[in-house]
Model the fold of this input.
Amino acid sequence: MEEGNLFASPPAAVADDWQAALAACRDCPLCREGNRGPTGYTGPLSAPLMIVGEGPGAVEDEYGVPLVGPSGELLNRALASVGISREAVYVTNVIKCRPRGNRTPTPAEGLHCARRWLLQEIGAVNPVAILALGKAALTFFAAPFAKTAPGIVRRRGTWIDWAGMDGVAGRPVMPTFHPAYLLRLHGREEVRAKWQVYDDLQAVKARVETAVGTVAWGGATPPDWRRQWDTARAMRMQRKGEGR
Ligand code: SF4
Done:
């Protein structure tokens, strides 16, 4: 992978082998579930913090990058609340192809795609710490060979001493709620969960800063991803989409 920031450049400008190979991946049945192909990543390859979500939703499938829909906007605001700009962190997903109808991917599907792509990303970016969003990411790092996912409510906020996999070195992983889950909550439950995510973000930020000292966490203005990605979206929307 070459140094690049997909929030600053459309995918065509990041013409490296890794992106091309990912875009062409048909390595599992998920590529036949009506999506527009694998989604990539956002952020610099030099980022000390990696954020790993579950898989693309409808908006992410349109734009070809992770966490850019309503969930992504909430993530950006949550990051900003602790003084981190989205552009300063590397963001990706366990699973690159959107499951049909936004169904929850199985742990086996997550493990397969992660071993194919996510592990390469972790090896290339070599982040100090990883923030795992939601069940699928928690499962990959905490219980990758489990048939059922561990509970995120019980596990969030507690560091996972991830041992690594397939030759990729381990590192600390903080599980927290996925923003899509937060968007489904209301009232006191929503307020409580958002404060828990805030605490988890503070913990992961402190861990990175303890390891590397001063970190350039970026400015306070979140990226205007709709404007930046319109061209890429138009190209993906011409693909077959449902029924691919
Ligand atoms: S889900 Fe992952 S492994 Fe499967 S086709 Fe898509 S990119 Fe390839």
Summary: Residues 128 and 208 are 6 Å apart (CA to CA).
